[in-house]
Specification:
heterodimer, A: mainly alpha, 2 helices, 42% helix, B: mainly beta, two-stranded antiparallel ribbon
Chain lengths: 76, 407
């Protein structure tokens, strides 16, 4: 439960860090590395859907990542 | 004794509910604020611009297919068919899951995404005496999901999503709206979406008799912030809330009773779920990338979960890279989870998905992107294998293959 209590705090700290970093913009001509598909924050859409379904139907706490949540209670 | 974490989760829920409403309103207001004009911009949300864009012809941009197969073994107390009525039943099943995605542009501003997933599930609890023994020996399901995105200008995109899901005893409709606003030459992206899902399905008794129809609805709202931190680092934070109302079980899951025999699940009619997600990608100097994922989850059924994942990817050639990943998930159980319920319990569930559990996933993939000449500009190939293991007697192996054409 100690880890669980730290979860929201970690999220808030990450949000604050992202917001403060927004003050310094990275110019377009220095973003070549970020254009590599390996750097995508999420998986390719069909792979992401496959994995989301795998977890939604096996873990009652899955879902809610910006997509429809469900699972664990026949909610799929 | 098990109520304490529930109270904490409920307090968390109330604060988040108020926060998400404010965040959604602020996000929508920010997204619709006029942005500084650009020479190459010229976009607007006027009816004339939208109608002009809609009269353009469709152009196919890409076609991607993915075929996945799962082989699952395990046991759960919600399933019947064990050696005795008190024993967990089999959760053995195989899944064949083909998907197809078509992306089309309509003029310069409108993009359509048509997604067609399907499922063929076999051998679900073949020895059970409940409804699974007949209805789920072989189940086929399919969905049609259409998302249209309108780019109003360089900074602002609006999206509308509609979908329908068809399955033998089950129908589902989904409809949603999304908005995405970028700042500082896409260095910062703020997005928000709402999605409404309505399910209509057959209600069964635990012995497999069909009773009538019932329904439930789910409303999901999410906001996210993506930020380029350095020339080699990008990060994202996302918060989502889902409110489920109605019959929240599949109606045929059962619970072992202390008096002997089995009874149906007794679930609350509402569930409010919260998920807070952080993601980061870091470029590595040896032509590699490290992707990190963390998710905190809490709901008013008393489930609190933490999930972490790391992916290490390595590019071998301009056309080929491979990756490995590891995911760890830990959750507490629903406060009314039991594997032996007293007869007078107002709420009860024995579903192994709602139990306290840890799960681990380890996997790997190889991805190839070949430039082509002619009508097809690029060919995308991907092979992925993974192993999923859960502490309460469930494990699965999956293999997935994707083929994509970019035009």
């Amino acid at each position: 439960m100690r880890v669980a209590r730290r979860g929201p705090l970690a999220g808030v700290l990450l949000a604050v860090a992202l917001s403060s970093a927004g003050c310094a913009s990275v110019p377009q001509n220095r973003r070549a590395r970020l254009a590599d598909p390996m750097m995508n924050l999420t998986d390719e859409p069909l792979d992401a859907a496959r994995r989301q379904k795998l977890y939604d139907t096996r873990e009652g706490a899955a879902g809610g990542d910006g997509a429809a949540a469900g699972g664990g209670c026949g909610c799929q | 004794m098990k109520r304490a974490p529930v109270d904490r989760a409920r307090a968390l829920v109330s604060a988040f509910e108020a926060g998400i409403l404010v965040a959604a309103v602020v996000l929508c207001a920010c997204a619709l604020l006029p942005s500084p004009a650009r020479a190459d911009d010229g976009g607007s949300l006027s009816t004339a611009h939208i109608l002009d864009a809609m009269t353009s012809t469709l152009r196919l941009e890409s076609v991607t297919t993915r075929v996945s197969g799962y082989d699952q073994y395990g046991h759960g107390f919600q399933a019947q068919g064990g050696p005795t009525a008190m024993s967990p039943g089999s959760e053995r099943l195989t899944v064949f899951e083909p998907q197809a995605e078509f992306v089309m542009s309509q003029g310069d501003r409108i993009t359509h995404r048509l997604w067609l997933p399907a499922d063929v599930v076999t051998n679900a609890s073949p020895d059970a005496i409940d409804v699974m023994s007949s209805a789920s020996r072989h189940v086929e399901a399919g969905s049609i999901d259409w998302t249209t995105t309108y780019r109003a200008n360089r900074e602002l995109e609006l999206a509308m999503r509609n979908g329908v899901h068809l399955e033998n005893p089950f129908r589902s409709w989904a409809s949603g709206l999304g908005v995405r606003r970028s700042f500082a030459d896409d260095g910062t992206v703020v997005a928000g979406s709402v999605l409404e899902v309505f399910d209509w399905f057959d209600r069964f008794q635990i012995d497999g008799h069909r009773v009538d129809h019932t329904d439930r609805s789910g409303t999901t709202g999410s906001v996210s912030l993506t930020q380029i931190l350095t020339p080699t680092t990008v990060a994202n934070v996302n918060y989502g809330i889902t409110v489920l109302d109605g019959v929240l079980g599949n109606t045929w899951n059962s619970v072992p009773l202390a008096s002997g025999g089995r009874g149906p699940e007794l679930l609350p009619n509402r569930r409010i779920r919260h998920a807070l997600v952080g993601r980061a990608s870091q470029w590595l100097p040896w032509n590699g990338a490290l992707r990190l994922y963390y998710r905190f989850y809490a709901d008013d059924w008393g489930i609190v979960a933490n999930t972490m994942e790391g992916q290490l990817l390595q590019r071998l050639t301009p056309e080929l890279y491979f990756g490995t990943y590891y995911r760890f998930h830990r959750q507490t159980g629903a406060y009314f989870f039991t594997t032996l319920a007293p007869l007078d319990a107002p709420l009860r569930v024995a579903d192994s998905d709602l139990a306290p559990l840890d799960s681990q996933t380890i996997g790997g993939k190889v991805v190839m992107d070949f430039p082509m000449t002619g009508r097809v500009r690029a060919l995308h190939l991907e092979l992925e294998c993974e192993r999923y293991v859960r502490t309460n007697d469930l494990h699965a192996t999956s293999v997935s293959w994707a083929t994509g054409f970019r035009f």
